[in-house]
């Protein structure tokens, strides 16, 4: 406590804030990258005029509230008021669309990664660039707006991501970390910058639109981990800290996406390592030794915060339907007059799934709250389906909902691991699916037929990951790589749990995924007939 207090008093504590899909979290760390205070703000995206979005006022309310809660935590624990910090880092949900005019005003409401409204743009750009451009990427949103003839396009002077937006308003710097930038537009792995050849191809593609800008004019500057990315301005300090105690002049690291911070938080930035983040959405990333043999529309190519190539399978849906079913069980218990411990309820239900048949007893479910590009859906309908012969019991019911939470992900990873033959030594799990010890790990191990580890620090998440990147910028020694910094300073002596795949579970998941693929026409019929 005394050491943490002195770290804060001396202005050496480092702050990371990540804007996730359901929570904005602030984490303060000491010189050893140990969390010493935190704060958070719960929020939800809204479907407004067919667009998944977060309001601009909500964004700033959440940022300020998470910072305020962290500052209160510091005050209560250490009797200290924060006036300055060693460094700050911001991260957020990757991709999406935020376009601004010359006055710095948002031209249209923030379009999040969750939207699947850019199919035409995705398909055309993938063909023109010879590089898979997913629907949620920023460039797909921009090109779709051009194809739609949207009035605001001609007024754009800057386009960035959620993390880049926050960073810009706090520092005045229009920059992005390379990992976050790789979800906007393809990166040249040699230069660690946007691919100039593809920028030229894009400019040629839109030349007949006679816009008053070229793509390179409106994109942020790309930086790699460890580089300085500006300083907190007086205006930025007031935006972040409503109390007015925080002073300007604090250095900021390059803003990163939740994919990059997840890699950092799980020590998976080296080749042949990977991580699975499973919460509202789910994605898996594997750091590659070389380029893939072919373009796969199911896989994205992004980078680590240091610019190494990463294959990413991203799915819009993961635990939302699973959580909805747990809520139904909670409602039943309350109706029966029982006291409900939500954590205990999750633990019981998740562990019940381990008693189920390897292939879920013939049950089938889809967790599609929204569209799922890997399987070709622009919207979704959560479904549970069985035949009269299915073995319908609680264990199989929970198991099928855990399996289907990973169903689309497995479709993508099978391409990477089986078709492309990518080698994977270690994969780390983090996110809500892994909170119940061992269960989420066993399910993921069955899906990918590889060992899955969860570190003791996994619960700290992306806010801790961006705090580490800010700390790396501030504290790294000369020529110290991020890999070395993580291994030797952050995760040295770190203990975790490792689960090996069991053959019967692997075979059971393969049987389930075949049923899952064959039943996709049921999901399609539900979308077409259930409005």
From TrEMBL:
Domain Carbohydrate kinase FGGY N-terminal: 14-240
Domain Carbohydrate kinase FGGY C-terminal: 275-473
InterPro entries documented for this protein: ATPase_NBD, FGGY_C, FGGY_Carb_Kinase, FGGY_N
GO terms for MF: kinase activity
Any Pfam family matching the protein: FGGY_N
Assigned keywords, A-Z: Kinase, Transferase
Superkingdom in the source lineage: Bacteria
One GO process term, biological-process aspect: carbohydrate metabolic process
Coiled-coil intervals, chain numbering: none
PANTHER family (UniProt xref): SUGAR KINASE, XYLULOSE KINASE
Official protein name in the record: Sugar (Pentulose or hexulose) kinase
């Amino acid at each position: 406590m005394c050491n943490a207090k002195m770290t804060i008093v001396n202005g050496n504590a480092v702050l990371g804030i990540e804007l996730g899909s359901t929570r904005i979290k602030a984490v303060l760390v000491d010189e050893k990258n140990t969390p010493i205070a935190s704060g958070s703000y719960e929020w939800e995206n809204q479907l407004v005029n067919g667009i998944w979005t977060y309001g601009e006022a909500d964004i700033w309310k959440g940022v300020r509230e998470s910072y305020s809660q962290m500052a209160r935590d510091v005050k209560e624990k250490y009797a200290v008021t924060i006036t300055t910090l060693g460094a700050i880092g911001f991260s957020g949900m990757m991709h999406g669309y935020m376009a601004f005019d010359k006055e710095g005003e948002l031209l249209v409401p923030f379009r999040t990664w969750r939207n699947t409204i850019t199919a035409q743009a995705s398909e055309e750009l993938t063909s023109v660039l010879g590089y898979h451009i997913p629907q949620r990427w920023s460039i797909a949103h921009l090109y779709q707006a051009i194809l739609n003839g949207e009035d605001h396009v001609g007024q754009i002077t800057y386009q960035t991501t959620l993390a880049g937006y926050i960073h810009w308003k706090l520092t005045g710097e229009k920059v992005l970390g390379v990992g976050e930038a790789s979800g906007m537009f393809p990166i040249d792995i040699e230069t660690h910058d946007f691919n100039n050849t593809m920028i030229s191809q894009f400019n040629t593609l839109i030349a007949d639109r006679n816009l008053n800008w070229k793509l390179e004019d409106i994109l942020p500057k790309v930086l790699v981990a460890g580089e300085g990315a500006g300083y907190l301005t007086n205006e930025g300090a007031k935006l972040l800290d409503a109390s007015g105690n925080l002073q300007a002049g604090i250095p900021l690291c390059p803003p990163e996406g939740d994919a990059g911070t997840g890699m950092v938080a799980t020590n998976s930035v080296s080749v042949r390592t990977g991580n699975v983040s499973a919460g509202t959405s789910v994605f898996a990333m594997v750091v590659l030794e070389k380029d893939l043999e072919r373009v796969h529309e199911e896989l994205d190519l992004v980078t680590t915060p240091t610019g190494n190539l990463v294959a990413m399978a991203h799915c819009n849906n993961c635990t939302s339907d699973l959580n909805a079913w747990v809520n139904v069980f909670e409602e039943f218990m309350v109706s029966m007059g029982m006291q409900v411990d939500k954590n205990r309820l999750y633990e019981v239900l998740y562990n019940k799934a381990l008693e189920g048949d390897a292939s879920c007893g013939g049950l089938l479910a889809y967790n599609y709250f929204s569209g799922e590009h890997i399987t070709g859906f622009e919207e979704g309908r959560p479904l549970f389906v069985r035949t009269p012969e299915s073995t319908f019991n609680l264990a199989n019911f929970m198991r099928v909902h855990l399996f289907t939470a990973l169903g689309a992900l497995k479709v993508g990873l099978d391409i990477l691991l089986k078709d492309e033959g990518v080698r994977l030594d270690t994969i780390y799990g983090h996110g809500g699916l892994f909170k119940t010890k061992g269960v989420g790990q066993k399910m993921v191990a069955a899906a990918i037929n590889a060992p899955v580890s969860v570190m003791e620090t996994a619960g700290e998440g992306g806010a801790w990951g961006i705090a580490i990147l800010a700390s790396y910028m501030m504290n790294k020694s000369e020529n110290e790589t991020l890999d070395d910094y993580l291994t030797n300073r952050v995760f040295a002596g770190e203990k975790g749990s490792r689960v090996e795949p069991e053959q019967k579970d692997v075979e059971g998941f393969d049987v389930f995924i075949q049923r899952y693929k064959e039943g996709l026409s049921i999901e399609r019929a539900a979308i077409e007939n259930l409005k």
